[in-house]
Design a protein that fits this description.
By secondary structure, the chain is an alpha/beta fold. The chain has helices at 19-22, 34-38, 47-56, 67-77, 95-99, 102-105, 152-156, 179-193, 203-206, 211-229, 234-240, 279-285, 290-295, and strands at residues 8-12, 24-30, 59-65, 83-88, 120-121, 128-129, 135-139, 173-174, 177-178, 248-252, 268-272. The longest helix is centred in the last third of the chain and has 19 residues, at 211-229.
């Protein structure tokens, strides 16, 4: 084990995650054999129940530390080094349910040794508890998930919010495809059609080493994501991808009998094209609109 392993804890929040897992809770502890020692003087009519309990083992509830309390205790004992708790998907859980009274201790001036240090009594162990100053808590969330609005106010005073936008400059030209420009172009169009919270990250393209891998990312990750963003409005998906037929194609559907003269709008069957996608597909994707080309 590396020295740093005990200094870092990682947890993922979800809808069922609670205070018992994060701070502390009660867990059953088996007592196999103890009843046999303490119950030898039981009355005869209870002997059957006593035999069952001593054979199968009884249990009692014991206070057990959650992930936050464990790393906080280690950080307190090792005040010279920094400790980190990483909470992935912090917006997925019910924050008030998970943190409870601990939400007060997160504030910098209420940490252990601070001017306004606050100590609370934990409900199960009855221990006095503070958060050490050398424990840093990092939370991650996807801004495209609108449920963050439910926790933003509660956490704003206690966390610094740092935006981590896509970084196209970390990508390279692969097999003649200008990946930085492809990602930048897709995101410019998404920001125009949706908002800046729905941009595509650079991570999906970072492992691409050839044209086939780029196409696999486009077909199986980028295009389904765009369809979700636009609620299957494939005209907008097509627009983000350059407006041509390289990635998605459409076929006009004929109206049912009796509705030919209805005068409604044309309807289409949309199909995501099979791989491979050519280099020309990406070149057309990053081309500016024709009116911008002529103005330049």
């Amino acid at each position: 084990m590396r020295d740093d392993d005990e200094r870092i804890e990682f947890v993922t929040f979800h809808q069922s995650y609670g205070y018992e897992e994060f701070v502390e809770g009660l867990r059953p502890e088996t007592l196999s054999g103890e009843l046999a020692e303490t119950g030898s003087d039981s009355r005869l009519e209870n002997s059957s129940a006593h035999h069952t309990a001593s054979t199968t083992g009884g249990f009692r509830l014991k206070s057990e530390a959650g992930v936050l309390k464990r790393i906080a205790d280690r950080a307190r004992e090792d005040g010279e080094r920094s400790y980190v708790l990483i909470i992935d998907e912090i917006n997925r859980a019910n924050i008030s349910k998970v943190l409870g009274e601990l939400v007060t201790l997160l504030e910098e001036d209420k940490r252990e040794g601070a001017d306004n240090e606050v100590s609370i009594t934990l409900p199960y162990s009855k221990e006095a508890f503070t958060l050490p100053a050398n424990l840093y808590i990092l939370g991650t969330m996807n801004t495209a998930d609108r449920s963050i609005a439910l926790i933003d106010t509660a956490l704003r005073r206690r966390f610094e919010f740092v935006e981590m936008p896509p970084e196209p400059e970390r990508l390279e030209v692969v097999d003649g495809v200008n990946l930085p420009k492809v990602l930048e172009t897709i995101n410019e169009r998404l920001e125009y059609l949706v908002d800046r919270d729905h941009l595509v990250g650079h991570a999906w393209f970072m492992g691409c080493e050839n044209l086939d891998q780029i196409g696999n990312v486009m077909r199986n990750k980028i295009i389904p994501l765009l369809a979700e963003y636009f609620y299957d409005d494939w005209n907008k998906v097509r627009a983000v991808l350059g407006g041509g037929d390289h990635f998605v194609t459409r076929k006009k559907l004929n109206p049912p009998p009796g509705l030919e003269e209805d005068g409604g709008e044309d309807r289409y069957r949309w199909t995501v094209n099979e791989l491979p996608y050519s280099k020309e597909a990406y070149e057309d994707l990053i081309k500016p609109p024709s009116n911008l080309e002529s103005s330049e």
